[in-house]
Amino acid sequence: MSAAWPFAARAQQPRKVARIGYLAASNRVPWIDGLVDGLRDLGYVEGRNLHIEWRVAAGELQQIPKMTADFVSLNVDVIVAASTLVVSEARKATSTIPIIGVATHDGVGTGRYASLANPGANVTGLESLAPELDVKRVALLKQIAPNISRLNILYNPLSPGANIHIETLTAAIKNLGMEAQPVELRTSSEFDSAVELMRHHRPDALISVADPLILFVRNKIVDFSVAQNSANAHEIREFVQLGGLISYGAQFYGIWYRAAYYVDKILKGTKPSDLPVELPTVFDLAVNLKAAKALGLAVPDTLIATADAVIE
Predict the structure, then answer these.
(1) What does the angle CA 6 – CA 81 – CA 74 come to, to the nearest 5 degrees?
(2) Beta strands, E only, the chain
(3) Quick count: other Cβ atoms within 10 Å of Cβ 150?
(4) What is the mean pLDDT of residues 271-297?
(5) What is the enclosing helix (H) or strand (E) of 135?
C-alpha cells in the first residue's frame, strides 16, 4: 500500500538516510553514474546518508509493474523513473510518492505531465526533446550520406510518444525527397522478425527511435546496420561507440546529473508539482569516422569540427 502522508508531513519528518527507488526498463547504462555523481556533489553518499534501491528490467518490460510495486511497499522517499514508459507505470503504482521522470519524450503530449510549468500532483521531471530533434537527426544523416533514398524507422509502438516520433520523422524524411518505412519492435524476441522486414524493404539507411527496448537491443541494431551496409542515425552516443554512424540528442549524463537536484529538492520538502519540468540545454553530436569509411562516405569537415565526439 502506498504511503498516505502528505508532502508537508514528509518534510517535517525527514529520514536520516534518504531512500531512492531508481527504475529503468533497459539494462544498466553509463549515464546512471550522472545521478550518483550529482547526489554525491550535493552531499548524499550511499552507505552514509543515502540508500538507492536499483531496479533495472533489462528489456523485460513486463517486470516493471512488479518493480514499481516494490518501491511502494518499501515506501521510498522518491522514485527516479528513466523514460516516459517507466513514468507511466510509476504513476499507476502511487499517487503520493514523488516521481521524477528522466529523459521523458513528449511528456505533456502523452499525458505524463499536466504541463511543463505545473507537471502534476506527485510527478515532475526532465525532458529529452527527442521528438523535436528528429528533424535534425534526419538532416545530419542526409548530410553525411546524400545519396540515401529509403529509410527504415525502427521503433517500439508500445512506447508512449512513439506516434509523434513517427509523424515527425516521416515528414522530415519525405521533405528531403526520401521514402520512410516504419518497422515495429514490441519485444526483444521480435528482433529477428523485424530484421527480416527491414531486409525486405532494402533500406539505404536506418533511424532508431530511442526507448528502453530499442536501447536494450542497441548492439543488434548496430550489427544489422553494419551487415546491411546501411547508414544509420540514433539519439544516443552509445550506438556510435558500438559502431553506428552518427548520433544527436540531449546529453544524457547531464540530464541524469541534473536529476539529482530534483531529488535533493524533494527530499528537503519541495512538492514535485512546484518543480517545473526542465528541458535540456546541452546536446551531444557523435560521429564514427571508421563506420563512415566502411560505408564509403566522407564526413564533411564542418561536421567533424562541431562534433562532441569523433570516433576513428
Answers:
(1) 55
(2) 18-24, 50-56, 78-82, 99-104, 123-127, 150-155, 179-184, 205-208, 231-234, 246-250, 283-288, 309-311
(3) 16
(4) 96
(5) helix 130-144
Pairing state between β 231-234 and 205-208: parallel
Query: The pTM is what?
Result: 0.86
Q: Please give the helix or strand (H or E) that residue 175 lies within, else none.
A: helix 162-175
Q: What distance in Å separates the CA atoms of residue 259 and residue 262, rounded to the nearest whole number?
A: 5
DSSP string, 40-67: HHTT--BTTTEEEEEEE-TT-GGGHHHH
Q: Are 100 and 75 in contact (CB under 8 A)?
A: no
DSSP secondary structure code for residue 189 in this structure? G
Give me 288's grid cell. Answer: 564514427
Burial of residue 262 (CB within 10 Å: 0-12, 13-18, 19+) is buried
The three three-digit cell numbers of residue 134, written as one number? 528528429
pLDDT of residue 23 exceeding 70, the answer is yes
Mean pLDDT of all residues belonging to the chain = 91
Mean pLDDT, residues 16-43: 92
Q: Are 299 and 289 in contact (CB under 8 A)?
A: yes
Measured CA to CA, the distance from residue 180 to residue 193 in angstroms comes to: 19
- The three-point CA angle 42-45-49 to 5° equals 100
What is the spatial distance between Cα 109 and Cα 115, in angstroms, rounded to a whole number? 9
Beta-strand (E) ranges in 85-210? 99-104, 123-127, 150-155, 179-184, 205-208
